[in-house]
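Re: [ENG-882] Designed sequences occasionally contain unexpected residues at chain ends

Forwarding the minimal case from QA. C-alpha cells:
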C-alpha cells in the first residue's frame, strides 16, 4: 500500500489551533494539508568574466577596425540600375582632389622633337616616376620629378616606333635586379629592353637600360596596344588593323622547337586566303586598347568599332576568346536599363578599366563612353558570379550605368526613362541628357573608384578639361538606415594646359582590404597608407594630382573658413555627412598635426597653423557629443554597463585604430630568407613603427593637456556638476571608457618601444636564452595586439626582457644598469620592481654558489628574501614557484614560507578572499563571484607553504640519531618553519592549512592547536561537512566547553548531513547529557546564563521526543507489509535521515497508515487539544488493536487492548490533552460491553466472548495511577445519563464497576492515610452508593448478591470515613 496524499481535504493539522498557550517548539509549525509547490532554488547564471580596462579598450579598437572593415562593398551601392548623384563643391577647400606640382618638359625633349620626320608621341611610366617620348625610331625616358633630368634613350634600330610599354618580366628569365621590361614595338620588329631601377627614400630616382637581345618580327602588324601581366610576366599586343591578339614569348635560351623570342597569334590560327578583287575592299576594325585583370586571369580588348572581347588565360601559354560583346550588344543592354537618353545617344566607347576581384565579386569591367557615361559590366561563369572562380567566364552583362553630372538639360520624359531602379530620392537630378562630358576623349578608373575623364569641349581647343570624381565616403559609410548605401560621388573639374597624352597612378594601387567588403574605405587608410597620387602628361608638361584625405579637407576648411561662424557651419555640414564620431576623429587628428596641404613650394607639408590646431581642438571638445544610456537601462537600471560612450570617445578609438590598423593583427617577427640562411627580422619597417609611436605620443600629450575640458577625463569634480543620477552614471561610464583607451594608448607606445629595443639585439640569440622551449614558437606567433592587450603577450615580453638582461649579464654588463635602461624605454615591460627582482635572483644565485650552510650563503638568502618581499605584489607565479623551490633545495624553509605568505597578502590587500570564504556558505551566492579569483591567487601561494611543510617533515624524518640535549640543524629549521606558520594571523591561510590537514588525514592535529581560527574554521563548515562537525564538538569537549559541545551536537542532529536517524538520536542524547553537565573555569561560562542553558536543554528534549516518534514510525513502516516496492525504499530512506516535522509525520505517514497510537503521541507533542480528534483516534486505536489481536488469534484480545492503553498512558504521562481519563475509560467500558459478556447465561452470550474479568477496564487505570476522583466521577455520570450502551441490562455492570472502583479507592487510600481523599469525597461517594444499591438493579442470583454485600461493606466504610 502506497501512502499518497489523499484527494479530499484533510482535517486541520494537529497543533495548528491550540486552545491554551504553548511555547514555540522546533519543527512544529503548521503547513497546509494540501501539498504546495515549493519554490525551486534558482541556479545563478554564470556571471560574465570581469572585463579589465585593457580588455575593454582592445574590444573597442577591434570594434572600430571591424566597423571600418564593414565599409560597403562596391556592389552594395553599384547595383542593377542607374545613378548620377554628384556633389560638386564650389569652395576649393572641399575639393576631393588637389593639384600638387607641374613639371615642364625638358629642353632636350623639345630638341629631339624638332628633328621629327615621321611621328612623335609621349606617355608616362608613372610607377617609376618617368615619362617617355618617341621621336621616329628613338624612345627617350626621363625622371620628370628631377629639375634637370637626364634623357635615357633607345636609338639602336632604324624603324619608326609605334608603341611602347613598361611591363613586369616573367619570373626567372632575368636576374633579380631587373624589375621591368621596356617593350618597344616598331613597324618591323618588337624589342625587349631590361630596366634596372635605382631607388631611394623618395622612390625611383634613376634607371639603367640593358640590351637583352630579345626581339621578334612584327612586319605587317600595326602594334597599337601592349599590355603585360604582373602576375605571370606574359606580354600581349594588338594589331591596329585587325582584331588579332598576339603574345610575345620570351625565354632565357633557344630550345629545340622554340626560339628565345617569338610571337603567337591567339585569334587567327592559320594563314588566311588572299582577298579576291571582285569581293571589294572592307575596312576592318583594329585593337584600340588592351587591359589585364590578373585577379581573374582575364584580358580585355576594346576594338575601334566598339567591340569588347574577353580572353581567358587558362594555361600558362593559352589564351581563349570566351566572350564577345559588339557595339550593338552594348546598345541593347543599355536600352534594357534606360529607354532613351541623350547621354547614350551616338556615343562610342573610349576606354576600358578593369575591376579586380578583390574590389568586387561580380563587377569586373568599367567602360567609359564618349559622353562621359560609365558602363559597369559583370562576367559570369557557369551561372555563378566569377569571383574566385577558376573556370572561364561565359557571359557578360551590363549591371549599372553611371551618368555624368547634370548640366541642367531637362529630360523629355523625366525619370520615367529608366526601366529599372529609379534614382535615389532626394539626390541630385540624374543627367540623362547631360552634355557635361560629351566629348570625352579618354577616361580611366583607379581603385577604389577615382574616375578621370578628359573632355575636349571643341575640336579647336588646345587644351583638355579634366573631370575627376570619387565615391563620397561619408554618405556611403552612413549605415544607420536599412536602405542600401547611396552611390554619391564628389567631383571636381579642372582646366589643363595642353591636350592629355597619357596618365598613370604614381602610388601603389589602392586597397584597404583584400576583399570587397571594406576595400574602398579611404577614411580608414588616412594614416597608414600613402596618398593616392596620379600623373598626367599633356603636350605642355606633366601635372601631378593627389586624392585629398578628410583630415586635409578639414584643415583646408578651417584655413579658408572666413571666421569662426563660417567654419562652424562647414563643421556642421561635415558632421551631417560623416557623423559625429568621424568628425571627432578627424578634428582630433588635425589637432594632433595629421592635416596636410600643398605648400607654396608645391610640396606636401603638415598643417601646423595655431589657429587651425586650436579650432580643431575646440571642434573635438564641443562637437564630441555626450554619453547616454542604452535601452538595456530600462531593464537593468542605472548601471555603467548600460552606458553608450560619446561620439568623442568613438572618435578617439577610431583615430587610434586607424593609426595601428596596419600592425594590429600582424606578427611582430617574420622569417626572411637570405643568402646565408633564414634570419628573424621585424615584420614592419622600424621607421613606420616610430611614426605610429610618435602619432600616439602626440595624442597622449593632447589628451593630457586638454583633459580638464573633456567630459569623462575632467576628474571627480565633473561629477559634482551632474544634475541627476542618470547624468552621474553616464559620466562614470564615459570616464571608464576613456581611461581604458588612455591605458591602451600608453601600452601601445611602450609596446612599440619594447619592439624597437628587441630588434636592437640579435633575435636568434635572445630566443635561445628563453627558459621554456615552448616559448619560442609563441614569440614567433605573437602579434602586436597580443603584445599590447593580452596578458600572455605581456608575460612573453617579460620573458624576453629577462633574456635580454641575461644576455647582457653574460657579456659582463651590470644588471642594474641594463635593467634601468630597459625600464626607461619601456616601463610596462621592465618596471622598477623588475629591477629589484633581477637583483634578488642574482643574490639567490650567488647564495646557491656559496653553499646552503655557509654563513655568506645564509646572509645572501636573507637578502634575497627581503628584496623579494619588497616586490611581493609584482612577483609572478613562475618567479614565486622557482624561488620557493630553490629555497627548499637550500633548506631555507622559514624564508620560503614567509615569502609565500607575503605574496599571498599582497595579492589581496583588500582581503576579499576572506569575505568570499565567509559568504561561501550562502546558497544564493554568485558562483562566479569575482572574489573567488583573489582566493585562487592566494591559494596558489599557500600550496607552496604546504610543499615546504612536506619537505620539512621529510628532512626531519630522514635525519639520523641526535644526541640528547642537542638540537640538530634540521630540528631548528623545522621549529623556525612552524613558528612562521603559527604566528601568522592570515585567517585565509589558516583555513587553507586546516583543509590541507583534513585532506591528508591529519585531523588530530587540529585538536592540539589552541586557536580561535580552528573554532571558526570548523564552525563555518560544520553545517555541510560531517567530519568537521564531529571534530568541532570533540574540540569543545577536549577543552571542557560542554555547553558548546551540546549546541554543536544539537545542530548536527538537525543538519542535512547524511546521518541515520539512530545516529541523530545518539547525538541528541549526548547533547542532553552535555547540556546537563555543570562547567567551571571555561572562559565563556560567564556569559552562558542558566536561562539559555535551560532553553537549550528544553529544545534538545523536544527534538529527542520528536526523533523517538519518528523512530516509532520508521519501525512500523519497516514491519508494515502494505508498503512494497520502490515506494517502500523511498519511505524508509526518508524516515531514516533528517528529523521530520510533526506535520509531515502526521499527514504523510501516521494518519495515512492508520498508526493511531503514534497519532496520539504526535497530539501530545504538538499539544493538540481537539476533543473530537482525540476521541476519534482513541476509538480507532481500540478498534484496530482488537481487530489485529483477533486476526492474530490472540486468546484474550482485551488484554492486548489493555496493554496498549497502559503503554500510551505511560508514554504520555496521562497528559490530559491526549489521555483524557474520562473519555478513555468510557471507550474501554463501551469496548467491553460491545465484545464481551461476563455471565454465561446472558441472553446474547452466544454472540459475544466470555470474559471472566469484569473489572479489567478499572484495573487499567488503577495500574496507571489515574485519579480515583476522575474515575468515580465518570462512572457516576454514566449512571445518571442512562445512555446506551449503559442502559437496560448493562446498568448492572455499571453498578458493579462503581462498587469495584470505590472499593479499590478505599483500599489504596487507606495506605496513604487519607481515606477516599477526605471526608468530602466520602460523603459524595456515600450518596452514590446509597442510590445505586437502592435502585435494585442487581438481581437475586448468587453473583449479584455477592456484589450487593460488597457494596454494603463499601457503604459502611464510606459512612465511617464521612464521620
Amino acid at each position: 500500500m502506497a501512502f499518497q496524499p489523499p484527494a479530499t481535504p484533510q482535517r486541520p493539522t494537529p497543533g495548528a489551533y491550540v486552545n491554551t498557550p504553548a511555547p514555540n517548539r522546533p519543527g512544529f509549525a503548521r503547513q497546509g494539508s494540501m501539498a504546495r509547490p515549493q519554490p525551486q532554488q534558482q541556479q545563478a547564471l554564470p556571471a560574465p568574466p570581469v572585463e579589465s580596462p585593457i580588455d575593454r579598450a582592445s574590444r573597442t579598437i577591434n570594434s572600430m577596425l571591424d566597423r571600418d572593415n564593414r565599409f560597403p562593398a562596391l556592389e552594395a551601392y553599384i547595383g542593377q540600375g542607374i545613378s548620377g548623384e554628384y556633389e560638386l563643391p564650389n569652395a576649393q577647400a572641399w575639393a576631393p582632389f588637389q593639384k600638387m606640382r607641374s613639371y615642364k618638359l625638358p629642353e632636350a625633349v623639345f630638341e629631339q622633337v624638332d628633328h621629327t620626320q615621321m611621328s612623335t608621341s609621349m606617355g608616362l611610366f608613372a610607377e617609376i616616376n618617368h615619362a617617355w617620348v618617341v621621336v621616329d625610331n628613338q624612345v627617350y625616358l626621363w625622371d620628370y620629378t628631377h629639375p634637370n633630368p637626364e634623357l635615357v634613350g633607345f636609338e639602336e634600330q632604324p624603324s619608326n616606333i609605334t608603341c611602347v610599354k613598361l611591363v613586369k618580366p616573367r619570373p626567372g628569365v632575368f636576374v633579380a635586379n631587373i624589375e621591368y621590361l621596356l617593350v618597344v614595338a616598331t613597324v618591323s620588329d618588337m624589342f625587349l629592353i631590361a630596366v634596372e631601377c635605382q631607388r631611394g627614400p623618395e622612390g625611383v630616382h634613376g634607371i639603367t637600360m640593358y640590351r637583352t637581345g630579345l626581339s621578334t618580327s612584327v612586319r605587317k602588324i600595326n602594334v597599337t596596344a601592349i599590355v603585360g601581366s604582373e602576375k605571370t610576366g606574359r606580354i600581349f599586343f594588338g594589331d591596329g588593323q585587325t582584331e588579332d591578339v598576339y603574345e610575345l614569348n620570351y625565354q632565357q635560351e633557344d630550345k629545340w622547337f622554340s626560339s628565345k623570342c617569338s610571337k603567337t597569334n591567339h585569334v587567327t590560327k592559320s594563314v588566311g586566303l588572299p582577298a579576291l578583287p571582285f569581293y571589294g575592299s572592307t575596312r576592318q576594325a583594329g585593337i584600340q586598347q588592351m587591359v589585364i585583370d590578373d585577379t581573374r586571369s582575364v584580358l580585355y580588348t576594346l576594338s575601334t568599332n566598339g567591340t569588347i572581347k574577353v580572353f581567358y588565360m587558362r594555361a600558362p601559354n593559352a589564351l581563349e576568346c570566351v566572350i564577345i560583346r559588339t557595339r550593338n550588344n552594348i546598345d541593347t543592354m543599355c536600352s534594357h536599363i534606360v529607354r532613351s537618353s541623350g547621354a547614350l545617344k551616338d556615343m562610342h566607347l573610349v576606354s576600358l578599366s578593369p575591376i579586380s576581384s578583390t574590389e568586387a565579386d561580380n563587377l569586373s569591367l568599367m567602360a567609359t563612353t564618349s559622353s562621359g557615361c560609365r558602363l559597369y559590366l559583370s562576367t559570369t561563369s557557369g551561372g555563378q558570379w566569377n569571383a574566385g572562380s577558376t573556370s572561364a567566364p561565359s557571359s557578360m552583362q551590363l549591371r549599372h550605368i553611371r551618368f555624368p553630372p547634370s548640366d541642367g538639360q531637362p529630360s523629355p520624359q523625366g525619370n520615367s526613362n529608366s526601366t529599372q531602379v529609379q534614382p535615389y530620392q532626394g539626390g541630385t537630378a540624374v543627367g540623362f541628357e547631360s552634355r557635361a562630358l560629351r566629348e570625352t576623349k579618354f577616361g580611366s578608373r583607379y581603385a577604389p573608384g577615382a574616375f578621370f575623364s578628359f573632355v575636349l569641349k571643341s575640336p579647336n581647343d588646345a587644351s583638355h578639361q579634366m573631370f575627376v570624381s570619387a565615391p563620397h565616403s561619408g554618405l556611403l559609410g552612413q549605415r544607420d538606415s536599412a536602405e542600401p548605401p547611396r552611390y554619391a560621388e564628389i567631383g571636381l573639374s579642372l582646366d589643363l594646359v595642353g591636350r592629355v597624352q597619357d596618365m598613370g597612378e604614381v602610388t601603389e594601387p589602392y586597397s584597404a582590404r583584400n576583399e570587397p567588403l571594406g576595400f574602398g574605405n579611404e577614411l580608414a587608410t588616412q594614416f597608414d597608407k600613402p596618398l593616392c597620387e596620379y600623373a598626367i602628361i599633356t603636350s605642355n608638361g606633366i601635372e601631378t594630382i593627389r586624392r585629398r584625405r578628410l583630415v586635409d579637407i578639414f584643415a583646408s576648411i578651417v584655413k579658408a573658413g572666413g571666421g569662426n561662424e563660417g567654419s562652424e557651419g562647414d563643421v556642421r555640414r561635415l558632421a551631417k555627412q560623416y557623423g559625429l564620431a568621424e568628425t571627432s576623429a578627424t578634428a582630433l587628428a588635425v589637432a594632433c598635426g595629421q592635416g596636410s596641404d600643398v605648400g607654396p613650394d608645391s610640396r606636401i607639408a603638415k598643417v601646423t597653423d595655431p589657429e587651425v590646431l586650436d579650432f580643431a581642438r575646440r571642434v573635438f571638445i564641443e562637437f564630441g557629443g555626450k554619453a547616454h544610456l542604452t535601452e538595456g537601462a530600462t531593464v537593468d537600471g542605472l548601471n555603467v554597463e548600460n552606458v553608450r560612450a560619446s561620439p568623442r570617445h568613438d572618435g578617439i578609438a577610431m583615430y587610434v585604430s586607424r593609426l595601428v590598423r596596419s600592425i594590429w593583427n600582424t606578427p611582430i617577427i617574420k622569417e626572411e630568407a637570405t643568402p646565408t640562411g633564414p634570419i628573424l627580422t621585424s615584420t614592419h619597417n622600424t621607421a613606420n613603427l616610430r611614426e605610429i609611436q610618435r602619432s600616439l605620443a602626440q595624442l597622449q600629450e593632447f589628451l593630457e593637456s586638454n583633459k580638464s575640458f573633456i567630459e569623462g577625463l575632467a576628474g571627480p569634480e565633473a561629477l559634482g556638476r551632474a544634475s541627476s543620477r542618470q547624468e552621474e552614471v553616464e559620466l562614470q561610464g564615459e570616464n571608464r571608457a576613456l581611461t581604458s583607451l588612455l591605458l591602451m594608448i600608453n601600452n601601445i607606445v611602450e609596446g612599440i618601444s619594447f619592439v624597437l629595443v628587441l630588434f636592437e639585439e640579435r633575435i636568434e640569440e635572445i630566443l635561445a636564452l628563453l627558459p621554456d622551449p615552448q616559448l619560442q614558437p609563441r614569440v614567433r606567433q605573437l602579434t602586436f595586439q597580443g603584445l599590447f592587450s593580452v596578458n600572455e603577450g605581456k608575460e612573453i615580453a617579460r620573458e624576453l626582457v629577462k633574456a635580454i638582461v641575461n644576455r647582457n649579464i653574460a657579456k659582463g654588463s651590470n644588471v642594474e644598469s641594463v635593467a634601468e635602461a630597459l625600464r626607461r624605454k619601456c616601463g610596462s615591460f621592465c618596471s622598477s620592481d623588475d629591477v629589484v627582482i633581477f637583483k634578488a635572483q642574482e643574490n639567490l644565485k650567488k647564495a646557491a654558489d656559496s653553499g646552503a650552510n655557509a654563513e655568506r650563503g645564509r646572509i645572501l638568502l636573507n637578502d634575497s628574501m627581503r628584496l623579494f618581499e619588497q616586490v611581493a605584489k609584482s612577483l609572478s607565479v613562475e618567479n614565486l614557484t622557482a624561488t620557493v623551490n630553490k629555497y627548499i633545495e637550500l633548506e631555507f624553509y622559514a624564508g620560503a614560507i614567509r615569502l609565500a605568505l607575503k605574496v599571498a597578502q599582497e595579492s589581496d590587500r583588500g582581503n576579499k578572499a576572506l569575505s568570499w570564504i565567509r559568504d561561501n556558505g550562502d546558497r544564493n551566492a554568485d558562483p562566479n563571484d569575482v572574489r573567488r579569483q583573489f582566493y585562487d591567487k592566494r591559494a596558489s601561494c599557500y600550496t607552496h607553504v604546504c610543499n615546504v611543510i612536506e619537505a620539512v617533515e621529510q628532512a626531519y624524518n630522514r635525519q639520523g640519531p641526535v644526541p640528547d640535549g642537542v638540537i640538530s640543524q634540521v630540528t631548528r629549521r623545522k621549529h623556525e618553519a612552524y613558528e612562521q606558520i603559527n604566528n601568522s594571523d592570515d585567517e585565509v591561510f589558516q583555513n587553507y592549512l586546516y583543509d590541507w590537514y583534513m585532506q591528508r588525514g591529519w585531523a588530530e592535529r587540529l585538536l592540539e592547536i589552541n586557536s580561535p581560527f580552528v573554532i571558526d574554521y570548523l564552525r563555518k563548515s560544520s553545517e555541510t561537512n560531517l567530519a568537521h562537525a564531529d571534530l568541532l564538538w570533540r574540540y569543545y569537549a577536549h577543552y571542557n566547553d560542554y555547553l558548546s559541545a551540546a549546541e554543536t551536537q544539537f545542530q548536527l542532529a538537525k543538519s542535512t548531513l547524511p546521518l541515520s536517524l539512530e545516529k541523530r538520536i545518539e547525538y541528541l542524547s549526548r547533547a542532553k547529557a552535555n547540556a546537563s553537565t555543570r562547567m567551571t573555569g571555561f572562559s565563556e561560562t560567564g556569559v552562558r546564563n542558566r536561562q539559555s542553558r535551560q532553553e537549550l536543554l528544553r529544545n534538545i528534549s523536544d527534538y529527542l521526543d520528536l526523533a523517538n516518534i519518528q523512530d516509532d514510525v520508521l519501525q512500523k513502516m519497516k514491519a508494515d507489509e502494505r508498503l512494497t516496492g520502490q515506494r517502500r525504499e523511498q519511505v524508509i530512506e526518508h524516515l531514516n535521515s533528517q528529523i521530520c516535522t510533526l506535520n509531515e509525520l502526521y499527514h504523510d505517514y501516521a494518519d495515512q497508515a492508520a498508526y493511531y497510537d503514534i497519532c496520539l503521541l504526535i497530539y501530545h507533542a504538538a499539544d493538540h487539544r481537539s476533543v473530537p480528534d482525540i476521541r476519534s483516534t482513541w476509538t480507532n486505536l481500540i478498534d484496530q488493536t482488537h481487530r489485529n489481536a483477533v486476526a492474530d488469534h490472540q486468546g484474550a484480545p482485551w488484554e492486548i487492548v489493555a496493554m496498549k492503553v497502559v503503554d500510551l498512558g505511560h508514554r504520555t504521562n496521562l497528559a490530559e490533552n491526549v489521555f483524557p481519563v474520562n473519555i478513555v475509560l468510557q471507550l474501554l467500558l463501551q469496548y467491553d460491553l460491545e465484545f464481551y459478556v461476563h455471565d454465561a447465561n446472558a441472553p446474547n452470550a452466544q454472540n459475544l466472548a466470555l470474559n471472566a474479568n469484569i473489572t479489567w477496564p478499572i484495573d487499567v487505570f488503577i495500574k496507571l495511577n489515574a485519579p480515583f476522583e476522575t474515575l468515580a466521577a465518570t462512572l457516576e455520570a454514566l449512571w445518571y445519563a442512562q445512555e446506551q450502551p449503559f442502559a437496560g441490562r448493562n446498568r448492572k455492570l455499571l453498578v458493579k464497576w462503581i462498587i469495584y472502583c470505590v472499593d479499590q479507592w478505599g483500599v489504596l487510600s487507606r495506605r496513604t492515610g487519607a481515606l477516599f481523599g477526605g471526608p468530602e469525597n466520602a460523603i459524595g461517594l456515600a450518596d452514590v452508593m446509597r442510590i445505586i444499591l437502592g435502585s435494585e438493579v442487581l438481581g437475586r442470583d448468587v453473583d449479584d448478591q455477592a456484589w450487593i454485600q460488597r457494596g454494603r461493606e463499601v457503604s459502611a466504610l464510606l459512612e465511617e470515613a464521612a464521620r
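QA comment: On inspection the terminal residues look reasonable. The first strand starts at residue 81 and ends at 83. Proposing we downgrade this to a documentation issue.
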